[in-house]
Amino acid sequence: MEEPWDFEFLSRIADSCLSFLSEFVDDWLANDMRVSIFKILLSWLIFSLIAIHFAWKVYGNTVNDMYYRQGTGQNGGTPDTAPHLSGWESKAGDPPKTHRD
């Protein structure tokens, strides 16, 4: 009993997609101003993505090396702790704080 419902659901989805595509193709082939603007913006988007892709292929390692911290320590060249601080503790005379403070 579920098979006809599934087939009906799939056929409605397929019909909706086909009608959308046919309207899109009709609009695409029409020389309307909004279609021209859409074509220009779409080509600009595709061109930009391709340019970013090729620029990253060429300069990606250089950019990565510029921002990669080299050396030893917690984050590359930074020391594990600051020499004038004693970790989580505050000044020597202050009592340790609790959640109630």
UniProtKB/TrEMBL annotation:
Main localization category: membrane
Membrane spanning residue stretches: 37-59
Lineage top rank: taxon: Eukaryota
InterPro entries from the UniProt entry: TCTA (IPR016560)
Span list, region Disordered: 70-101
Basic and acidic residues: bias regions: 91-101
Gene Ontology terms: cellular component: membrane
Signal sequence coordinates: none
UniProt keyword list: Membrane, Transmembrane, Transmembrane helix
Gene Ontology biological-process annotations: osteoclast fusion
Cellular compartment(s): Membrane
Keyword Membrane part of the UniProt annotation: yes
Family to which this protein belongs: Belongs to the TCTA family.
Protein name: T-cell leukemia translocation-altered gene protein homolog
Organism: Sander lucioperca
